[in-house]
Design a protein that fits this description.
The complex is a heterotrimer of chains A (about 475), B (about 400) and C (about 250).
Chain A lengths: L19 H8 L4 H4 L8 E2 L6 H10 L4 H16 L21 E2 L13 H9 L2 H8 L2 E6 L2 E7 L1 H4 L4 E4 H6 L3 H7 L10 H9 L4 E5 L9 E6 L6 E2 L2 E6 L4 E9 L7 E3 L2 E6 L4 E9 L4 E4 L1 E6 L4 E8 L4 E4 L2 E4 L5 E10 L4 E10 L5 E10 L4 E10 L6 E11 L5 E10 L4 E11 L2 H8 L5 H17 L4 H19 L1
Parallel strand pairs in A: 3-7, 6-9, 7-10, 8-11, 9-12, 10-13, 11-14, 12-15, 13-16, 14-17, 15-18, 16-19, 17-20, 18-20, 19-21, 20-22, 21-23, 22-24, 23-25
Antiparallel strand pairs in A: 1-2, 3-4, 5-6
Chain B lengths: L6 E4 L15 E4 L11 E5 L5 E6 H11 L2 H11 L14 H10 L2 E7 L9 E6 L5 E10 L4 E9 L5 E12 L4 E9 L3 E12 L4 E8 L4 E10 L5 E10 L4 E10 L5 E10 L4 E10 L6 E11 L5 E10 L4 E10 L3 H9 L4 H17 L5 H16 L3
Parallel strand pairs in B: 5-7, 6-8, 7-9, 8-10, 9-11, 10-12, 11-13, 12-14, 13-15, 14-16, 15-17, 16-18, 17-19, 18-20
Antiparallel strand pairs in B: 1-2, 3-6, 4-5
Chain C lengths: L3 E12 L2 E12 L3 E5 L6 H9 L5 E9 L2 E2 L5 H7 L1 E4 L6 E5 H13 L5 H14 L10 E2 L5 H15 L3 E5 L7 H18 L2 E5 L13 E6 L2 E6 L2 H9 L2 H9 L1
Parallel strand pairs in C: 3-10, 3-11, 6-9, 9-10
Antiparallel strand pairs in C: 1-2, 1-4, 4-5, 7-8, 11-12
Helix pairs in contact in C: 3-5, 5-6
Classes of the chains: A alpha/beta (about 475), B alpha/beta (about 400), C alpha/beta (about 250).
Chain lengths: ~475, ~400, ~250
C-alpha cells in the first residue's frame, strides 16, 4: 500500500483518511458547486399561479391516463379548500400565484449522458452525478426542473427484474396497474394542503420496484435539480420493495439561489413488504430561497425494516417529517437525521412513528445545529396504537446552539394507547463547552478548528450512516456552514 | 362535532404542533360542568401567620399585573415568532380561564408574607365539597424579600360526590423569597377541577410547586413561572393517579429569562382503566438567560391496555449558554419487577398499588402536614381496593 | 544560548469569584523536573491552567515567558504549538472524534507538516503498547466512556506523540491504582528520556515520582509560592504535611 498524505481533509472523524478518492472528491466541493444557474432558453413553462386550466394543461402535456387527470382536478379542489398549517415556520413569503408549477426542460429523457443536452449535462457533471454513477451506483435518475432528463439502470440489476424508471413511463408501462394501486394511497391529497397541491401538479420523480427476494447490493440514486427561477418542483417517488427484498435508495436535491421563492412539494411513498428492507438516504441542499414542504411516508409490513438517513442543510423554510407506519408484526424503523440551520433558515424537521403491529420497534436519533440566526426545530410524534402490543420506541434528540442569535426548539410528542409497551425519550440542548474547546486547543488546534471538530464529532453518528461519498459531502457541508460565520 | 360545543380553551401549548395529535390545547366544555348550587366549605389553618384580606378581584388583578414583568417578557419573542399568547400575568391555564375567573369571582384573597418573615407552620387552605358543591376562588400570594412560606391548598369531598372547583393562584416572589405552593386534589369521582397557578420569580427567589392529583373526573392543571430574576428557581414535583375514564390534563411552563435561572420539573404518575392523561411541559430559555439550566423528567406507569397517555416535553431555546434536557419513560410494570414482587408474596394488584404509591410517595411525603399525607395514602389504597 | 525554558514573573491570577494566585515567580530550565505541591485549594491547578492559557483564569499581573517569548496573552493553541503541553486532571470527552484522528491532527498543527500515515500508525501503536493501552482505543471516541485510568493514559499518549518541550502534569496520578500509576510513570520517564523534556508535576503523592529525578520541589499555599527545595522536600512534606507552611501564611 502506498503512503498517502492528507492535506485536503483537515479532520474527518467519520472517514478513514487513507482513501484518496474521497479527498479528490472533497477538493472539488464548495458552495459554488450548488449555486450555479443555467440558461432556460427554449424551455416549456406553464403560467404562474394555479387554476384548473393550468392543471389541465400539465395533464395534457404529460399525456396522463384519464384517472390521473381526474385525480389532479380533485386534488386541486382540495388544495383550494384547505388551510396552511397554523403551527411551524411562517410561509407568508410563499405566494402560490407566483410559483410556476411546471417547467419542462428542452429535451426528452435520455438513457445515456451523451444524449443529454450539453448545458443540462454540465449541471449534473458539476454535481458529480455521472461520475458517482460510474463508481458506485446501480442506477441513476436525474430530474431537471419538472422532468427527468436521464434514467439508467445497470444491466445486471435490470436482469434481476428490478424496475427503476421515471414516474411518467411507469404510469403507462407494464406496471401501470401497480402504480394506479399505490399512487398517493399512503399520502392522500386530503392529508394536508401541500399534499393536495402535489396531487394536482406533480411531475417527474421515480418509480422503483424490487421483486420478491431480490437484494440490490449497491444503491440507486435520484438527483433533483431545480434550476428555473420562481418554479416549483413536485416530483413523486414511489418505491415498492417486495417480500424479502432489499434496497438502498439515495436522494439528492439542490438548486441555485434566486431572489424569489421557489417551492419544493415532492412526495415520497415507500412500501416495505414482508421481511423486506429499505434504506432511504437524503442529503438535501436546496438553495436558501426554497420552501421545502415535502412529504415522505413509509408503510412497513410484517418483519420489514425501514431505515431513514436524512441530512437537511438547505432551503429557507422546511417542513419535513418522514413518517413510518409500522403495520406488520415485528416491523422496525430506524430514523437518523441531522439538520443544520444557518442564516435566514427556519428548518422544522423530525419524524413520526406510528406503531400498529405487535412487537414493532422504532429508534430515532437526531442532531440539530443552529447558527447565525438560524432557527432549527425538532418535531416528532410517536404513536403507539392499542394493537401495538410490546411495541418499543426510543427517541434521542440533541441540539447544539452555536451562538446566541439563533434558535433551537424541540417539540416531541408521545401518544401511547396501550400499557404493554416501552417508550423512552431523551433530549438535550446545549452549546459547545468552553472546556472542551480549551482541551483541544491545548493540543495545538486553533479555536475555529477545535469548534468545527466538536461539531463534526457531534454529527458523526449521522454521517457514519451514509455511504462514504455522501458522508464526505455532508462533512463538507458542515465545514462550509461553520466557516460561513467566521468569514 | 366538538367545534360546535361551547367551551373554554385552556392549557395551550406555547409552541403549537400537529393539530391531529390533539395536544395544542384542552377545552373545558360547558356541558361537562356539573351543575351545583351549594358552595364548598372553606376553612383555613395557621393563616394568622401572614397578613390576609379580601380585595375586589379587579383591584387584585391590577395589583398582580403591576408586580409582574409581562410587557417586557413578550415584547422580544412575540416580534420574532408568534408562538406565545399574550397574557400580562401569564398563567398555566391561560387567558380564557383568567378572564372567566375575573368575571365570576367578585373577591380575591390576597396573602402577604412580610419581608424576612418565615412562618414555621404551613398555611393550610381547605375547600370541602362534602356531598357535592362548587367553589370558584382566586388568591394572590405575595412573598416579600427573603421571606419563606408554605401554602397547602387541599380540595376534599365524599367519594361519590360531584361538583366544580375552579382555582387560580398568582404568586409574587420578591428578591430572595421562597414559596412552597402545594395543591392536593382528593375530590370525588364526579368533579371537574381547573386549578391554575402562576408566579413571578425575582432575583434569587424560588417558586416550589407541588401537586398531587388523585380525584375528580376531569382535572385541568396549569402552572407558569416567569423566571425574570437572576438566579430565579422553579421546581415542580407532581404526582397523579387517574382511573376509570378520568382525565388529567397538565400544562407547565418555565419561562427562563434571568441569568443563571434553574428549572426542574418532575412528573410521575400512573394510569388505569381507560384513564387519559396529557402532559405538556415547556422549558423556555429566552434570550439573555445565560448560564441557565432546565430539566424535565416524566415517568408514567401504564396499568391497563386501554389507557391513553400523551406527553409533550418541549424545550425552546434562544440563548446559547444554557443546558436543557428532558427525559420520559413510559411503560407498564416491568416483568422483572413484577416477578420480584411476586416472589415476595404480592399479587399483581398489590404490586401495582405498591408501584403507584411509590411514585406518589416521594411527592406526598414532602407535604408538611401529616393529616394530608395520611389522606393521600388512604385515597390510593381505597382506589386500588375498590377495584377488586 | 540560555537554558531557560519557562519564566514566570510576578504572576497574579483571578477568576470571576476573586483572586487566586499572588505574585508567583518560577523558572524552569530545559530538561528539568519540577514538582508542585500544596494543600487542596492552594491554586496548583490554577497555575497549570494559567500557564496553558485557560480563558477561565485572568492574569491580573506579571508575565509568562516561554523560550524568551512573552506568551502571557498568547492563545492556547499557540502555546501548544510552541511546545507546551498539559495533562488534564479531568480530560474532556469529545463524542464523534476518534483518538487517532485527533492526535494526527494535533501533530500536524504542532509540526506544521503533513503527517505520514504509515509512520504515524506505527508510532501510535508502539506508544500505546508502551502504555499498555489496547489498540482498539485508537478508533474510540476521545475519552468517551474511558475509565479514569484510561483517560490518564490517553493524556500521556498524547504527550508522547506530540513530543512537547514542556509538560504540565495536573494530578495525573490521582485516582489511579498502583499498576496504572506505574504504567503512567513509565510513560513520563520515556518522555523525559526521549526528548529531554521539562516537567511540572502537580501531585499529592510520591508514587509517580519514584522513577523520576526531581530537580526542584515548590510548595504553593493560599496562592503563594512559600518555599522551594530539592527532591528531599517531597519526603519532608510527606512526613510533616503542610501545617507549618499554613501557619506561616497565617502569620504573614
Amino acid at each position: 500500500m502506498s503512503e498517502v498524505i492528507d492535506d485536503a481533509v483537515h479532520f474527518d472523524p467519520a472517514i478513514d483518511n487513507t482513501k484518496d478518492d474521497i479527498n479528490a472528491y472533497l477538493e472539488g466541493t464548495d458552495r459554488s458547486l450548488y449555486d450555479f444557474k443555467d440558461d432556460e432558453t427554449g424551455f416549456y413553462k406553464v403560467d404562474e399561479g394555479l387554476t384548473p386550466e393550468i392543471v389541465d394543461q400539465i395533464s395534457k402535456e404529460k399525456n396522463d391516463p384519464e384517472w390521473m387527470h381526474e385525480f389532479r382536478l380533485k386534488s386541486l379542489e382540495l388544495y383550494n379548500k384547505m388551510q396552511v398549517p397554523n403551527w411551524g415556520p411562517p410561509i407568508d413569503g410563499l405566494d402560490m400565484n407566483n410559483i410556476i408549477t411546471y417547467v419542462r426542460p428542452n429535451t426528452k429523457m435520455k438513457g445515456t449522458w451523451d444524449e443529454v443536452p450539453e448545458e443540462i449535462k454540465s449541471a449534473f457533471d458539476k454535481l458529480g452525478i455521472p461520475q458517482a454513477e460510474h463508481k458506485y451506483l446501480a442506477g441513476v435518475g436525474a430530474q431537471y426542473d419538472s422532468e427527468l432528463v436521464y434514467h439508467n439502470l445497470q444491466d445486471f440489476v435490470a436482469q434481476q427484474g428490478v424496475v427503476y424508471s421515471d414516474m411518467e413511463s411507469a404510469l403507462t408501462g407494464k406496471y401501470a396497474d401497480m402504480v394506479h394501486e399505490y399512487f398517493m394511497k399512503l399520502v392522500p391529497p386530503t392529508d394536508h394542503k401541500f399534499a393536495a397541491l402535489h396531487g394536482a401538479v406533480w411531475s417527474g420523480g421515480s418509480f422503483v420496484y424490487v421483486p420478491k427476494g431480490v437484494k440490490v447490493d449497491i444503491p440507486l440514486q435520484s438527483y433533483f435539480r431545480l434550476n428555473a427561477k420562481g418554479a416549483g418542483q413536485f416530483e413523486h417517488t414511489l418505491i415498492i420493495v417486495d417480500e424479502g427484498a432489499d434496497l438502498h435508495f439515495i436522494e439528492g436535491c439542490s438548486a441555485p439561489k434566486w431572489n424569489v421563492a421557489n417551492l419544493h412539494a415532492g412526495c415520497v411513498e415507500l412500501y416495505v413488504k414482508k421481511n423486506a428492507r429499505l434504506r432511504y438516504s437524503t442529503i438535501e441542499n436546496w438553495s436558501k430561497n426554497m420552501y421545502n414542504l415535502n412529504t415522505k411516508r413509509a408503510l412497513v409490513e410484517e418483519g420489514g425494516r425501514m431505515e431513514w438517513v436524512s441530512g437537511s442543510f438547505g432551503s429557507h423554510v422546511s417542513y419535513l417529517y418522514p413518517t413510518t407506519i409500522l403495520k406488520g408484526k415485528g416491523a422496525d424503523c430506524e430514523y437518523t437525521g441531522i439538520t443544520f440551520s444557518g442564516k435566514g433558515q427556519d428548518l422544522d424537521t423530525g419524524c413520526r412513528m406510528v406503531h400498529i403491529g405487535e412487537d414493532t420497534s422504532s429508534l430515532v436519533t437526531t442532531k440539530s445545529l443552529s447558527k447565525d440566526g438560524g432557527i432549527g426545530t425538532f418535531r416528532s410524534a410517536v404513536e403507539i396504537m392499542p394493537t401495538a402490543k410490546r411495541a418499543k420506541s426510543s427517541v434521542d434528540c440533541q441540539s447544539l446552539m452555536l451562538d446566541d442569535i439563533s434558535r433551537s426548539d424541540t417539540i416531541p410528542e408521545m401518544d401511547v394507547k396501550t400499557n404493554n409497551c416501552d417508550v423512552g425519550h431523551e433530549a438535550k440542548i446545549g452549546r459547545i463547552s468552553d472546556e472542551a474547546v480549551f482541551y483541544l486547543m491545548s493540543r495545538g488546534i486553533p479555536e475555529n478548528e477545535a469548534r468545527a471538530m466538536i461539531v463534526s464529532g457531534f454529527a458523526n453518528p449521522i454521517s457514519k450512516e451514509l455511504p462514504l461519498e455522501y458522508a464526505a459531502e455532508m462533512n463538507n457541508l458542515i465545514k462550509l456552514e461553520m466557516e460561513g460565520s467566521m468569514a | 362535532m366538538a367545534e360546535q360545543r361551547e367551551g373554554m380553551t385552556v392549557n395551550r401549548l406555547p409552541s403549537l404542533t400537529w393539530n391531529r395529535l390533539g395536544v395544542n390545547f384542552a377545552k373545558i366544555f360547558d356541558d361537562e360542568i356539573p351543575a351545583s348550587d351549594a358552595e364548598a366549605a372553606f376553612s383555613a389553618r395557621n393563616d394568622d401567620q401572614v397578613a390576609r384580606g379580601a380585595r375586589a378581584t379587579e383591584e387584585a388583578q391590577t395589583f398582580a399585573d403591576s408586580m409582574s414583568d409581562g410587557v417586557r417578557r413578550e415584547a422580544y419573542v412575540a416580534a420574532k415568532r408568534s408562538i406565545y399568547q399574550g397574557q400580562h400575568f401569564a398563567t398555566g391555564l391561560g387567558h380564557d380561564f383568567t378572564d372567566y375567573m375575573n368575571a365570576n369571582v367578585p373577591e380575591t384573597y390576597v396573602y402577604t408574607v412580610e419581608e424576612n418573615d418565615h412562618p414555621d407552620k404551613p398555611i393550610v387552605l381547605n375547600w370541602d365539597f362534602g356531598k357535592g358543591a362548587k367553589a370558584l376562588a382566586q388568591q394572590v400570594i405575595h412573598v416579600k424579600k427573603n421571606a419563606e412560606a408554605t401554602f397547602l391548598m387541599t380540595y376534599t369531598s365524599e367519594k361519590n360526590a360531584e361538583g366544580l372547583g375552579m382555582f387560580e393562584t398568582r404568586v409574587i416572589l420578591e428578591e430572595g423569597a421562597t414559596l412552597h405552593l402545594m395543591k392536593v386534589n382528593l375530590l370525588g369521582e364526579g368533579f371537574v377541577l381547573a386549578d391554575d397557578s402562576a408566579a413571578v420569580v425575582r432575583d434569587g427567589a424560588h417558586f416550589d410547586y407541588l401537586s398531587v392529583m388523585l380525584g375528580a373526573a376531569r382535572t385541568y392543571a396549569g402552572c407558569y413561572a416567569d423566571q425574570c430574576g437572576k438566579g430565579a428557581m422553579f421546581t415542580v414535583d407532581t404526582g397523579y393517579m387517574a382511573e376509570k375514564d378520568h382525565l388529567v390534563d397538565i400544562n407547565y411552563v418555565a419561562a427562563q429569562r434571568g441569568k443563571k435561572t434553574q428549572s426542574k420539573i418532575n412528573v410521575k404518575g400512573s394510569l388505569r382503566d381507560t384513564a387519559k392523561k396529557v402532559f405538556r411541559g415547556t422549558i423556555d430559555f429566552r434570550k439573555g438567560t445565560k448560564g441557565s439550566t432546565g430539566d424535565e423528567q416524566e415517568d408514567v406507569l401504564l396499568l391497563s391496555p386501554r389507557v391513553t397517555n400523551k406527553t409533550v416535553p418541549v424545550i425552546l431555546t434562544e440563548e446559547e449558554d444554557v443546558d436543557g434536557r428532558h427525559g420520559a419513560t413510559i411503560g407498564n410494570l416491568s416483568e422483572d419487577i413484577l416477578f420480584y414482587l411476586e416472589t415476595r408474596g404480592l399479587d399483581a394488584d398489590a404490586a401495582e398499588m405498591l408501584m403507584t404509591r411509590g411514585r406518589l410517595a416521594g411527592v406526598a411525603h414532602r407535604i408538611p402536614d401529616q393529616d394530608t399525607v395520611d389522606r393521600i395514602d388512604a385515597f390510593i389504597e381505597e382506589a386500588f381496593g375498590n377495584n377488586d | 544560548m540560555s537554558d531557560t525554558l519557562l519564566e514566570v514573573k510576578n504572576l497574579s491570577v483571578s477568576i470571576e469569584e476573586g483572586p487566586i494566585l499572588h505574585d508567583v515567580n518560577l523558572t524552569i530550565n530545559k530538561g528539568e523536573t519540577h514538582v508542585l505541591m500544596g494543600p487542596n485549594g492552594a491554586g496548583k491547578s490554577t497555575l497549570g491552567n494559567t500557564l496553558m492559557g485557560n480563558p477561565v483564569y485572568h492574569v491580573t499581573g506579571g508575565q509568562i515567558l516561554f523560550n524568551g517569548e512573552d506568551i502571557t496573552n498568547a492563545t492556547v493553541d499557540k502555546r501548544a504549538r510552541l511546545g507546551m503541553f498539559m495533562s488534564f486532571q479531568n480530560p474532556l470527552e469529545v463524542p464523534g472524534l476518534s483518538v487517532e484522528s485527533f492526535i494526527r491532527n494535533a501533530m500536524r498543527q504542532r509540526t506544521g507538516k503533513p503527517v505520514k500515515i504509515m509512520q504515524f500508525k506505527e508510532q501510535l501503536e508502539s506508544t500505546m503498547d508502551l502504555l499498555q493501552m489496547d489498540a482498539s482505543y485508537a478508533d474510540r471516541d476521545l475519552n468517551v466512556g474511558f475509565s479514569g485510568g484510561e483517560k490518564k493514559k490517553a493524556e500521556i499518549l498524547q504527550m508522547l506523540m506530540l513530543n512537547p518541550s514542556f509538560a504540565i502534569l495536573d494530578e495525573t496520578d490521582s485516582g489511579l491504582d498502583v499498576d496504572a500509576v506505574r504504567t503512567v510513570s513509565q510513560g513520563i520517564e520515556e518522555y523525559h528520556k526521549r526528548s529531554d523534556g521539562a516537567l511540572l508535576i502537580i501531585t499529592h503523592s510520591t508514587k509517580i515520582l519514584e522513577s523520576l529525578d526531581v530537580d526542584y520541589t515548590h510548595v504553593l499555599v493560599k496562592g503563594s509560592l512559600v518555599t522551594t527545595g530539592g527532591a528531599d522536600l517531597v519526603e519532608k512534606i510527606n512526613d510533616e504535611g503542610f501545617e507549618k507552611y499554613l501557619e506561616e501564611e497565617e502569620k504573614a
